[in-house]
Amino acid sequence: MSNAASNPELQRILMQEEEKRMVNQVVSALTSQCWDKCITSTPGNKFSSGESACLTNCAHRFLDVTVLIMKRFQSMN
Amino acid sequence: MDSFSSPASSIGSSDPRQISPEQFQNLVQSQFAQAYAQEFLETIRDKCFKSCISKPGSSLSGSESSCVSRCVDRYIEATGIISKALMQRPH
Question: Domain named Tim10-like: which ranges (chain A) (predicted)?
Answer without folding.
Answer: 13-75
